[in-house]
Amino acid sequence: MALHVLISNDDGIAAPGIHALVKEIRKIAKVTVVAPDRQQSAVGHAITMNYPLRAIPYERDGEFFGYAVDGTPADAVKLGVRYLLKERPDLVVSGINHGSNTAINILYSGTVSAATEGTVLGIPSIAVSLTTYDEADFTYAAKFSARLAAVVLERGLPAGTLLNVNVPAVSPERIAGIRITRQGKSTWEDTFDVRRDPANREYFWLTGRMVTTDTDPSTDQIAIKENYISISPIRYDLTDAAMVEAMKEWGVGDLK
Amino acid sequence: MALHVLISNDDGIAAPGIHALVKEIRKIAKVTVVAPDRQQSAVGHAITMNYPLRAIPYERDGEFFGYAVDGTPADAVKLGVRYLLKERPDLVVSGINHGSNTAINILYSGTVSAATEGTVLGIPSIAVSLTTYDEADFTYAAKFSARLAAVVLERGLPAGTLLNVNVPAVSPERIAGIRITRQGKSTWEDTFDVRRDPANREYFWLTGRMVTTDTDPSTDQIAIKENYISISPIRYDLTDAAMVEAMKEWGVGDLK
User: Which DSSP category does A190 fall into?
Assistant: First the structure.
């Protein structure tokens, strides 16, 4: 039986990154696309419970391309796996995101969230991002994604673990190599732009810049700066095991 | 100088859980409330970048209670710390959520997200939930939160780690004790209710039930079932360290 890959993203079903990805993954497997109908960046792992969802067939070049869902990336994957696909997919690939998802950005990422939802549903999952906000060529990143997808289809992933992949936005010959990485600690120096509306009421617009505080080459943040493809295995079990042990000395039993 | 606690939630600034919490925390510290203006459940760690935010003073019993923000829990905490509070808070407390935030639900939780954002901003943070969806008495959970907050204000927390607290919704004398726990693996058996709108177009509504597959008393899920208050130290570094090592054997360097 043919392998079946569910593809989603957070840039929306019309974004160029998902089209490049679908084109390459179709060479190795049957593909079903279930993706948000519009951009859903920075939605984190939101799911929609208080509103209904719709899934509208979306055409590209006169052919059925996939289902456009009026929800979040996690909604799209959940609806795809639980209802739209008639069989359980062998793999979920989310992307290719236009912009990096490294360090603290993983928390806010809709791209990673779609892959996380795949993992929650027990399916090996990969999130892929191209590390530029400028106009981008997704061709190499898509070809690399298909090669990595083939490996994961063969080897599987441990339950609860997904792969978060970032591909430097440079020409293929400038890619330095591939590094297995961990999530960096770099974060945002964010501020709010304070403005006044026409009625002179104050409002706020989030702005800021990502500041690289990481220096360790084993982090995703530094790997991509050095033109390496970064592959970070991440998990959704958030337990801080060391702190579980440390807190046993706190004597919190007395607080009851 | 008085200690200063920022309080937020995901049930919205008018919810009874945040009022009970504020009342108790005010006994040990100066409190500023910055919370969503309406219910924001299951928003995950979403932040608002594409729209402006407003912060409207919210009154309760004729007095200023806090700022109501038309955004997510993470937005509220970010805006509070980066702009509204004139000093850096010593602690962020999020809650008290009406409903448990254990096992897989931690991923989707807006309550946990508010505390995570506090942690990202470098401030010790606690998320508190009361484990019932029925009508609830937040009094004991609020008193416990204040006792725990006092301990955290004194001891601090490691960078990147927050506490996710669940309080069983039983009378205080039936609370069995306090357990330091890890995130359980229980998840949702979710389905989509397929319906037709008046124009006979299909739509989907997410439904389902949480299924307890955990059996280990050291998980949050089982602790609350046994009427223990569960305190799980969680972290936002998602790296699966064991898998980083294992993947070095995969030979992915050849994929370039």
Answer: E
Give dist(CA B131, CA B17) in Å, integer.
Answer: 12
For residue A101, what are its two tokens? 């998802």
Q: Which of A119, A149, A151, A152 is nearest to A45 (CA)?
A: A119
Inter-chain touch B239–A253, beta carbons under 8 Å = no
Query: Cβ neighbours of residue A166 under 8 Å, at least 6 residues apart?
Result: A100, A101, A102, A128, A129, A130, A131, A220, A223, A224, A229, A230
Distance CA A239, CA B161 (A): 9
Helix and strand totals (H; E) in chain A: 7, 11
Neighbours of A2 (CB within 10 A): 9
Contact B190 A52 (CB under 8 A): no
Tell me the domains of chain A and their CATH numbers. Answer: 4-184+215-255 (3.40.1210.10)
- The ipTM, to two decimals, is 0.93
Are residues B5 and B149 in contact, defined by beta-carbon separation less than 8 angstroms?
yes
Under an 8 A CB cutoff, do B53 and A144 touch? no
Cross-chain CB nearest to B46 (options A46, A177, A253): A46
Closest partner residue to A252 among B151, B204, B206, by Cβ? B151
Residue length of chain B: 256
Per-residue pLDDT of chain A (256 residues; tens, 9 = 90+): 689 999 999 999 999 999 999 999 999 999 999 999 999 888 888 898 888 999 999 999 999 999 999 999 999 999 999 999 989 999 999 999 999 999 999 999 999 999 999 999 999 999 999 998 888 899 999 999 999 999 999 999 999 999 999 999 999 999 999 999 999 999 999 999 999 999 999 999 999 999 999 999 999 999 999 999 999 999 999 999 999 999 988 988 889 8
